Amino acid sequence: MTRPAPAHRIALLAFPGIRAFDVSVITEVWGADRTEHGVPGFELRRVAASPGPVPMRGGLALTPDRTLAWLPRAELILVPGLDDHLTPAPEPVLAALRRSHARGTTIAALCGGAFTLAQAGLLDGRRALTHWALTDLLRARYPRVLVEPDALFVEDGNLWTAAGTAAGIDLCLHLVRAAHGAEAAAAIARSMVTAPFRTGSQAQFIERPTPHADRDADTLAEVRAFALTHLHEPLTVSALAARAGMSPRSFARNFVAASGTTPLRWLVDHRIAAAQKLLERTDLTMPEVARRSGFGSEVTMRQHFASRLATSPRAYRASFAARPPSAQER
């Protein structure tokens, strides 16, 4: 996974037919001043091919404040989804996306925005996804795209795509977390009153539960809450299953059905998140960070950071620590 560079200049790419919801999500994440809460200051620009208002559904319009000539300054470009998913983007917009990608600029598309990236030819031979209900349409319309059947967001070659609606929020927060640290993303999530952490590999669609499944979900919620307060302990799937009063196989099956991910992946993801906070907030030694976050050893923690975050714990601390590391950690 490519780790985005710190992004302070953000472009919201606007053209007729974009979804007002996605515009609102992008604006809420990067357009509000939260510097007093430790969030970096962002310069969010609404970029369009021409300076006139951009029409959206419901009589809404977006007034751009920059033209496409500003895009070379952007460190991150956000492409909203579309009300009509086959809406053709203006050729100047597509050409600007191609040039931006060639420069190495990170580009992220929300929901049906994947169709715009595919129209530009940027997704040919690359992994991508969209809303689960549009997966077959994206695959049929653009057969050279390697469409992921089930995830919240995915990255390939500095191009990010996300599933529908809430997954767009997940991707935006993930991009903030990857570029500016877990604390910055958590501060934004708190102000939005949304969950600060859902992994991209989590399933985007979960079947509606039956009453029996509801009871299981309540039990699993208690187990997850217990695990979050005991991450430092050597938790196993068997131990968590016993706490839920289920066999390990039944527990794993119900856990995936309720949360969209496996118990082991869920544990690792939350241990990484715990380690990120410790690395940002404290000057604890690496072995102590590993112990408190449940990895047991610095080697194990380092392996998981490399596979999930494409960085090391020490490099993460150097980038995002709120205070200088101790002499022992330098």
Q: How are the strands of the biggest sheet laid out side by side? A: 5-2-1-6-7-11-10
How much of the sequence lies in strands comes to 5-15%
Largest sheet: 7 strands, mixed
Q: Name the average pLDDT.
A: 86
Low-confidence stretches: 203-215, 323-330
Name the overall outline. Answer: globular
Through-space gap between termini: 26 Å
Structural class, from secondary structure content?
alpha/beta
Structure overview:
The chain has about 325 residues and is an alpha/beta fold. The chain is built from 13 helices and eleven strands. The strands form three sheets. It has a seven-stranded mixed sheet, sandwiched between helices. A two-stranded antiparallel sheet has the order 3-4. Strands 8-9 form a two-stranded parallel ribbon. The longest helix is centred in the last third of the chain and has 19 residues, at about 265-280. About 40% of the residues are buried. Mean pLDDT is about 85; it is low at about 205-215 and about 325-330.
Outline of the structure:
The protein has about 325 residues and is an alpha/beta fold.
